[in-house]
Design brief:
Strand order of the largest sheet: 1-2
Distance between the termini: 55 Å
Radius of gyration: 19 Å
Strand content: under 5%
CATH topology: Fumarate Reductase Cytochrome B subunit
Order of helices and strands: EHHHHHHHEH
Amino acid sequence: MMQGVRVWDAPTRLFHWSLVAGFAGMWYSGKQGGDLLQYHIWCGIGIAGLLLFRLLWGMVGSDTARFAHFVRGPGTIMRYLKGELAEHEQPGHNPLGALMVVALLGVLLFQVSTGLFSADVDSYLYDGPLAARIDSGLAEAITAWHKLSFNLLLGLVGLHVLAILTYKLVKKQNLVHAMVTGRKPLGGVAPRLRFASPALAVLMALLSAGGVYLLLTRV
């Protein structure tokens, strides 16, 4: 019997949808160029804060947000691929979804890191916040890496969206609705999940904002 079970906490859901908005803004402003590159930089800084928060929340947050809880080894992945892993055993991200999360976070970190040191080779008006700290030739090389990695990022986002559609059409599971409400229909024994305090999430958000501020002003 399927039952609606609380799986995602509010901080994780807020991070997810803020990242979606930030990514859309980053893509649009970067694609348009010109004066919108200033917004591109702001979106990148915002995403940097979100990523730092997610890394911290992945260590101290709720069970389904912790990397140690949902990132599994080859044995569990094979069980999932064979259909031997029950939903209640992996109530949050499934093993393949976990790999996608790690890949997306990794490429986003690279994207934001290279963006900080990238040079505006067209107008030279909107260099990355830390571009002046390095040699101009290196900054231009990093800009090329920044543009190239974005294509990889778009590919991963496309795969992510395709997986969501597959779950909706094949498994009849609405993952978007689950990430909005925090609840997910699960069969079997309801998992016992620990949810972290919202106050802890606020603290992690403040630490993340402070970390990004120090990076931009003290490096």
